[in-house]
Description:
Blueprint: E1 6-16, E2 21-32, E3 37-41, H1 48-56, E4 63-72, E5 75-76, H2 82-88, E6 93-96, H3 110-119, H4 126-139, H5 145-149, H6 158-170, E7 176-180, H7 188-205, E8 208-213, H8 216-222, E9 225-230, E10 233-239, H9 240-245, H10 250-257, E11 305-307, E12 313-315
Parallel strand pairs: 3-8, 3-9, 6-7, 7-8
Antiparallel strand pairs: 1-2, 1-4, 4-5, 9-10, 10-12, 11-12
Membrane topology: Peripheral membrane protein
Subcellular location: Cell inner membrane
GO molecular function, one term: ATP binding
Amino acid sequence: MSEAFFEVEGLNTWFFTRMGIFKSVRDVSFDLRRGEVLGIVGESGSGKSVTGMSIMGQVEEPGRTVSGSIRLDGEELTSLSFEDMRRCRGRRIAMVFQNPLMTLNPLMRIRDQMYEAISEHESVSEDEMHQRCLDALRAVGIPSPEERLTAYPHELSGGMRQRVVIATALLLNPDLIIADEPTTALDVTIQAQIIHQMRRQIDERGLGMIWITHDLATLSELADRILVMYAGAMMETGTTAEIIGSPRHPYTSKLLESVPSRNVPGEKLRQIRGTMPSLLSLGAGCPFMGRCEHATDACARGVPERMFSQTHRVWCHHPLEV
């Protein structure tokens, strides 16, 4: 197995508000190899997107990364200056957001926006920029790319806009792409097409990708490894086969039971009882204990890390039997 080129270790990102400190990401660690997709999954509020924004260095006040290490090819990103981190974004790390209209300027043609992404980092001729944009649009399956380049965002469908954003992220051939629920607002047919195109680009270019989602079904098709998060903390991590086929954490098991395709037709959909605890009042114990049917008094104390294989780790006092 190849060495990891990207490493996150002991990441803590907190938000300092008048109400108190929201510990949105707590002691999160993982790594990534080239050509690999890591899926980060969990409910809304579990810290997935904040983890992605922390990597990009784009957590805004009152939030900040209080501790931890983020290394890309051995270079520590948390110690970079604002300008150095700005040069790193787009060129070495790119991010694709859920809503392409957050990324695309409605007043600019697609061509001008893609040109700008290149010119911010490289000095190349307009002819070369034009050709690179056409190649990037073709790579993500956009038909008639010449015509799309002259269009405005509102003239394209939602799926086409998202492809444009992905093509823009690929323009500079970054080492890492962070995709934050990029297919959530699209219909299932377009989702499948985009997932297929992304997997192909990763395999061909040897990129690393972090795919943030709440949809385990999507990860089962796309990801090589999965990290399950809850209330800002890691619950379980392993290969896709280990997480989907033999989950050990009660929370992971409940997430899988909630997938509609796993429910019996005619019966009520299964759901996880209760709600996520406030990030203001988290103790030293397992954050899932209030909703877990396996919880005991021991769960209120520090959560142990248990290893079931070289890749499969669980943070739980009472891991499930396979």
